[in-house]
Write a structure and sequence with these properties.
The complex is a heterodimer.
Chain A: H1 9-65, H2 71-75, H3 77-83, H4 94-109, H5 113-123, H6 127-140, H7 148-154, H8 161-169, H9 177-182, E1 185-187, E2 193-195, H10 203-234, H11 237-248, H12 255-266, H13 271-279, H14 292-316, H15 320-328, H16 333-344, H17 346-361, H18 365-370, H19 378-387, H20 392-416
Antiparallel strand pairs in A: 1-2
Chain B: E1 8-16, E2 22-31, E3 36-40, H1 47-55, E4 62-67, E5 70-71, E6 82-85, H2 97-107, H3 112-125, H4 141-153, E7 159-163, H5 171-188, E8 191-196, H6 199-205, E9 208-213, E10 216-221, H7 223-228, H8 233-238, E11 243-253, E12 257-262, E13 265-271, E14 280-285, E15 291-292, E16 301-312, E17 316-323, E18 327-334, E19 348-353, E20 358-361, H9 364-373
Parallel strand pairs in B: 3-8, 3-9, 6-7, 7-8, 13-20
Antiparallel strand pairs in B: 1-2, 1-4, 4-5, 9-10, 11-12, 11-14, 12-13, 14-20, 15-19, 16-17, 16-19, 17-18
Helix pairs in contact in B: 2-3, 2-4
The chains are: A mainly alpha, B alpha+beta.
Chain lengths: 426, 374
């Protein structure tokens, strides 16, 4: 018996057979699974296509716009090349200036200059008129200015380095200038990043205000929704369902109708002011709409269900025995509520607060309608750049920042509460 | 009203939720200090409601409940100082085990030092020192159960209520925990009121058992009395196995013996809830009280029938004997006294039992009608 049992020929062949069938079993499994996978992929394909076309692609496109700066390098390709030699010290050399003037004249001649001038004007105001005027004058004379004096004769602004610096900063194919502007910063004449002059700082304040208002709205919603959700979760089902319908009623009314009805209620000659005057609480009519107050009131009303529903679904799942256990262990009702019940509702509070906050920092219609001047939020500024100033790069940069903030919030929330602890629906 | 030697006393307690149906009907129970009393009954029989009324989570519609001589009807739950173990443990999921145990001590404003000391000794008691910093979710069912027990005991209440505390455990663990609870009860000398629907649990642990059905106590007795002499058909049916035969009382001799006609047979039985001849009755005989009659044995009741089935159960055999005009009788014989070779399926077999093991009880249909009417 010197040979091991496992070395017997019959055993070896048997094992080979076995491993072969094992392999085929594995591939069989894979085949079966693959079919399943393909089927499920096919099922979600329409949705994936829809999301890609209408959601993912536009967002990527917009984010690209926020850094895109192809127009200047394409419009002034030679200038872009030679500008590399200049290091923001003094004025560019005469050679560089001449290359630029030549291209400027060409662009004026082929009528693409206005578009380019508009783009550069966003960076340094006054550039449009400077470029258009210079182009027009260059077009009239055949000779290019040969020295600095002749150039200054065309327009004396060419003696200032900051106009040249603007052309150089914009000669890169990608730029952070929109993002810098969205944070109230800019490139100075030396190509360094500096603060905007105080009179032109708007965005940081607007961001702060947007976050402040959203925070206030979230907190008000939480304070108002908590008791309602508690009531809903502890009523018998029949009554709870009826109340839930009342809570959801705003969802079934158009956002526009709800917002405008707030104007009716809150305006100077509105119902509430009439009531206040009639009851003698005040003698002067209060400004309650077209300001921050009106925006907050209307937005709290619209966003309240988003806070109530997650809270309700979490509270519904909390067994009453926890509360009873706390009571039986000697806790007064209030201590049992604070120490046992409230911590158990935290997933709902987290989900509701996150949802409300994220929805409110991106809110547009309500601030636009009832916000007046002081109740404007960052999305109104984005809309302004999209529709009025046509500075899409700026709109994209503001939107990008907003997106970044939301993602950062999600990350923080995940670290602190855990995204898996979120409970939005039953 | 109540004498001081009763620690807990329910007096004529009634409870209704809708004003129409009584969930608990005229409930009376006195529990002595240090006693282990179990309320046993099918679900919906009102036993948990009684427990919740004692804990203070339900209010009695009428009647009084006393703890240590003081009426507690208007006392808030947190002032009753009752330890409670819930069906699904109700350990606070957001607190560690140590925090769970410290909770009742902290709300009583004990010093941090005292709290730590007591938590440690409570964990010691249930042999779970090593899980102090874990969360309830990370513990097995048995461990959670032990923690729940420790939490109900850590603030040294004199009375502990348990609402089906072992319901979620598997059989083996349940039996082990039954012993553990029993030992803790003996060691600490606390009074325990226990609710279960598991009769084995009730029989092994309790000093006394109150059997509930339809909101009323059917019998309140020690486990032995409950099993050996059930007072009505429901108790006989609910506790343990039994053979049931419907019959009519022919004759009652004093209070000790009666003759009941079942089919063609006349059977001697112990009258429990029959008083007159001519009454319908239900006879109840435990399968293990029926003996297989050997040549020179003699029993008061002896019948011969056909062995229909023989089921092997390891430690015992179960025989199903078909008796003409009576019905089927299940007989349990231990593996020690007989072996399966002694029996032949299809053959004839004589079985017998003593009259005191055969209880003549009320007719269940009659009782149910009464229950519904009330």
């Amino acid at each position: 018996m010197s040979r091991e049992l496992t070395e017997l020929d019959s055993v070896v062949t048997l094992q080979k057979e076995l491993s072969k069938s094992k392999g085929s079993l594995k591939s069989q499994l894979q085949r079966a699974e693959r079919q399943k996978q393909i089927r499920s992929l096919l099922l979600i394909l329409p949705l994936v296509c829809f999301i890609c076309v209408t959601f993912a692609f536009p967002i990527i496109e917009m984010l690209y716009r926020s850094v895109d700066n192809q127009s200047v390098p394409k419009g002034f390709p030679n200038t872009t090349q030679v500008m590399k030699q200049w290091d923001y010290e003094g004025l560019p050399s005469m050679a560089i200036q001449q290359v630029f003037m030549a291209e400027l004249r060409e662009r004026y001649a082929d009528k693409t200059l206005p578009k380019l001038a508009n783009r550069i004007n966003i960076e340094v105001s006054g550039m449009r008129s400077l470029l258009m005027k210079t182009g027009r004058k260059l077009n009239k004379t055949n000779a290019l200015p040969v020295n600095h004096q002749e150039l200054i004769k065309l327009d004396k602004r060419w003696a200032k380095p900051r106009y040249w610096a603007a052309i150089k900063t914009l000669s890169a194919p990608y730029t952070l200038s929109y993002y810098l502007a969205a944070l109230d910063m800019r490139y100075d004449e030396h190509g360094n990043i500096t603060q905007q002059p105080e009179t032109r700082q708007v965005y940081v304040d607007l961001f702060t205000k947007t976050f402040g208002m959203s925070l206030a709205i979230t907190l008000i919603c939480l304070v108002m929704a908590y008791p309602v959700a508690y009531l809903l979760a502890n009523l018998p089902d029949k009554k709870a369902n009826l109340l839930l319908i009342v809570v959801l009623l705003p969802f079934w009314t158009s956002l526009l109708v709800r917002t405008t009805s707030w104007i009716v209620l809150l305006q100077n000659q509105g119902v509430i002011n009439d009531l206040l005057i009639w009851s003698g609480v005040t003698t002067e009519r209060l400004a309650m709409v077209h300001n921050t107050f009106g925006t907050i009131v209307a937005m709290v009303h619209i966003l309240l269900p988003f806070m109530i529903l997650p809270l309700y679904s979490v509270m519904k799942g909390i067994s009453p025995t926890y509360f009873r256990a706390a009571r039986s262990l000697g806790a007064t009702p209030s201590i049992a509520f604070i120490k046992v019940y409230m911590p158990l509702t935290m997933p709902g509070v987290g989900a509701g607060a996150l949802l409300t906050f994220i929805l409110s920092i991106g809110f547009y219609i309500t601030p636009a309608l009832v916000g007046g001047r002081s109740g404007q939020m960052i999305s109104n500024m984005i809309a302004y750049h999209m529709q009025t100033s046509l500075n899409w790069g700026m709109a994209a940069a503001l939107g990008g920042l907003l997106l970044a903030v939301v993602l950062a919030l999600f990350y923080l929330f995940n670290r602190i509460v855990g995204i898996n602890n979120i409970k939005v629906g039953g | 009203m109540t004498t001081p030697q009763e620690y807990v006393s329910f007096q004529h307690v009634q409870k209704t939720y809708d004003g129409e149906n009584l969930v608990v009907k005229d409930f009376n129970l006195d529990i002595k200090p240090g006693e282990f009393v179990t309320m046993l009954g099918p679900s919906g029989s009102g036993k948990t409601t009684c427990l919740m009324m004692l804990a203070g989570f339900e209010t009695a519609t009428s009647g009084e409940i006393f703890i240590d001589g003081t009426p507690v009807n208007n006392l808030a739950p947190h002032k009753r100082d009752i330890g409670m173990v819930f069906q699904n443990y109700a350990l606070f999921p957001h607190m560690t085990i140590a925090e769970n145990l410290a909770f009742p001590l902290k709300v009583r404003k004990l010093s941090a030092h005292k709290v730590n000391e007591k938590v440690e000794s409570a964990l010691n008691m249930v042999e779970l020192e090593h899980v102090a910093n874990r969360y309830p979710k990370q513990l097995s069912g048995g461990q959670q159960q032990r923690v729940a027990l420790a939490r109900a005991l850590v603030f040294e209440p004199k009375l502990v209520l348990m609402d089906e505390p072992l319901g979620a455990l598997d059989k083996q663990l349940r039996e082990q925990m039954q012993l553990e609870i029993k030992h803790l009860h003996e060691k600490l000398g606390i009074t325990i009121l226990y609710v279960t629907h598991d009769q084995d649990e009730a029989l092994t642990m309790s000093d006394r058992i109150a059997v509930f059905n339809n909101g009323a106590v059917q019998q309140l007795a020690s486990p032995t009395d409950l099993y050996e002499s059930p007072s009505n058909a429901f108790v006989a049916q609910f506790i343990g196995e039994n053979n049931q035969l419907m019959g009519e009382v022919i004759e009652i001799e004093a209070k000790k013996r009666c003759t009941v006609k079942v089919g063609k047979q006349q059977i001697l039985a112990r009258p429990v809830s029959v008083e007159r001849a001519g009454e319908q009755t239900l006879l109840s005989i435990r399968p293990e009280k029926i003996m297989v009659v050997q040549e020179d044995d003699w029993y008061e009741n002896q019948v011969t029938g056909l062995l229909k089935e023989l089921i092997y159960h390891g430690d015992h055999h179960r025989l199903v004997v078909q008796i003409d005009g009576v019905g089927e009788l299940v007989v349990k014989v231990t593996n020690g006294s007989h072996s399966s070779r002694d029996f032949e399926v299809g053959g004839s077999l004589t079985v017998g039992w003593r009259s005191e093991d055969c209880h003549a009880l009320d007719c269940p249909n009659h009782a149910e009608q009464q229950g519904e009417a009330a």
